[in-house]
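F.,

This is the one I mentioned.
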């Protein structure tokens, strides 16, 4: 009896971390609250005109899903993507990522809504309740792109039975384009939906804020240093190769404007030692960390395959005994 596929449904929906389960409970509970008390949306969702007296909605808006479809999709994506990211980042950094990126998204959406009101004088930008976990999910895609190496696999060097390596390579290559692809899909859909203003800004800012955080501020558990300066995680890596010569000069301008002071601080605090970069401050260390991420994914897939095979054998044994 052949074992089920590695990425089968049974293995996909098992092995969730305790932290992700707790966050999933928060999402479901928040959805239940706003369904029982609809007026709670006015206090928990981000309504720019009310943010000044109710500043806490900058923190709570990201965890409020107003539709049943939104809470189901957000909960499943949190559990599935969380069990990939949390073991690599660590629970503390994983939770910090969610908290900080969620707050930055809300601040950016608030500033954008106020700016659009002064430009257009349309009050709907001030009183539209904006909420949802989609910004953090967009950030998870960026995090997945960071930890999975952009590797080229030659099938000629693999044995026919090495299906796990083939799948791992396919997932790796696909994940490199997921953030850009999902953002493009969201932008295209926004042209055909009237409610796009409620979700599109959070997805855009979720993608960009998470990249900024991971690129410059995320603390690496193994080295205690911050950021990922590798070329594989540059802003232009989110786009096709033929666009990079155009994007790199533009990105470098914003890089100097927004992060020049941060880079000066890095040099002042000794990210180099005797002219040689410390671990974590060059592309080699980033490549090694990506390899660890791929190895962690491979080990998890192998463990889930083994558990599925054992379960199948037990079922077969029980069936034979019953006969």
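My design for it:
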């Amino acid at each position: 009896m052949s074992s089920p596929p590695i990425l089968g449904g049974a293995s996909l929906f098992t092995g969730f971390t305790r932290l992700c389960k707790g966050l999933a409970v928060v999402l479901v509970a928040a959805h239940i609250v706003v369904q029982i008390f609809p007026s709670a949306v006015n206090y928990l969702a981000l309504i720019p005109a009310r943010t000044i007296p109710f500043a806490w909605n900058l923190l709570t808006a990201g965890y409020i899903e107003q539709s049943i479809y939104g809470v189901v999709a957000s909960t499943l994506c949190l559990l599935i993507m969380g069990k990939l990211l949390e073991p690599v980042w660590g629970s503390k950094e994983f939770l910090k990522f969610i908290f900080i990126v969620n707050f930055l998204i809300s601040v950016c959406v608030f500033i954008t809504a106020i700016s659009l009101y002064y430009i257009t004088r349309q009050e709907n930008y001030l009183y539209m309740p904006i909420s949802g976990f989609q910004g953090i999910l967009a950030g998870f895609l960026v995090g997945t792109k960071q930890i999975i190496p952009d590797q080229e696999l030659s099938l000629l060097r693999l044995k026919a039975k090495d299906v796990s390596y083939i799948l791992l390579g396919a997932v790796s290559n696909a994940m490199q384009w997921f953030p850009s692809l999902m953002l493009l899909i969201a932008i295209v859909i926004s042209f055909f939906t009237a409610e796009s203003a409620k979700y599109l800004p959070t997805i855009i800012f979720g993608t960009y804020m998470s990249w900024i955080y991971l690129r410059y501020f995320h603390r690496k558990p193994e080295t205690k240093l911050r950021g990922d300066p590798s070329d594989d995680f540059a802003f232009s890596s989110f786009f096709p190769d033929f666009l990079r010569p155009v994007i790199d000069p533009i990105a470098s301008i914003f890089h100097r404007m927004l992060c020049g002071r941060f880079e000066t601080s890095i040099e002042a605090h000794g990210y180099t030692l005797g002219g040689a970069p410390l671990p974590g401050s060059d592309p080699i260390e980033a490549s090694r960390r990506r390899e660890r991420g791929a190895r962690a994914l491979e080990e998890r897939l192998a463990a889930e395959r083994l558990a599925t095979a054992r379960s199948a054998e037990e079922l077969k044994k029980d069936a034979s005994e019953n006969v």
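Residues 1-10, 150-168, 264-282 have pLDDT under 50 and may be disordered.

Talk soon.
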